[in-house]
Amino acid sequence: MLEITNLHATVGGTPILNGLSLSVNAGEIHAIMGPNGAGKSTLAYVLGGRPGYEVTGGSVTFNGQDLLALDPHERAALGLFLGFQYPVEIPGVSNVQFLREALNAQRKARGGEPLSGGEFLKLAKEQAALLRMDMEMLKRPVNVGFSGGEKKRAEMVQMGILDPIFAVLDETDSGLDIDALKIVGEGINSIMRRPDKGVLLITHYQRLLDYVKPDVVHVLAKGRIVKSGGPELALELEREGYEAVA
């Protein structure tokens, strides 16, 4: 589903990714852990196509297509979703307006018909309920005045509405208390744990992996994968830290 081969990337001329290779099959959830500055967020932004992140070598194939040759909106239309560590605020644009436009733009790119207002609101209510979010929150400007936990829950509602086939989630557990962590974890499982979908879950800590059980755990250090293993690897890192493997 996602095949990354010998990926090199720079930010502002500074090398960050240094020969990273990784393969995620449909139906799998892979967790990436690593110390600060290892390149975890850079990997997420490169996959999403964020400007300023220059790929200098290697390749990324997504469902048989050259992902790096596509613009960000084309990647999204293919079914790629990027969850941000710090979701941005968009004053003056309601969540409902933003999500309906985004969803219908993707449906159009795939040759589908746009959802009517009534159809969209029904879908939005279902996804908001899944994340235990009041629909009144979705009528407010995107993330404006939201707490850290509310921003992450709203982002999971976005993911549920857009229904991607692959999600790259960059430190989704950042800023979540215990209750919000459980809700977000359950949301990820409900939306993405399916045989035809995949997830790349970037995190510092084991705690999210208590709710979203990964099939494979990778350690990213100095811009490349230095160790891979099963879920037990995350527990080892929690006990011993990254120095033992980085």
UniProtKB/TrEMBL annotation:
The keyword ATP-binding applies. InterPro entries: ABC_transporter-like_ATP-bd, FeS-cluster_ATPase_SufC, P-loop_NTPase. Transmembrane segments: none annotated. Keywords: ATP-binding, Nucleotide-binding. Residues 2-246 form the ABC transporter domain. Pfam families: ABC_tran. The keyword Nucleotide-binding applies. PANTHER family: ABC TRANSPORTER I FAMILY MEMBER 6, CHLOROPLASTIC. Belongs to the ABC transporter superfamily. Ycf16 family. NCBIfam families: sufC. This is Fe-S cluster assembly ATPase SufC. It comes from Croceibacterium selenioxidans. The gene is sufC.
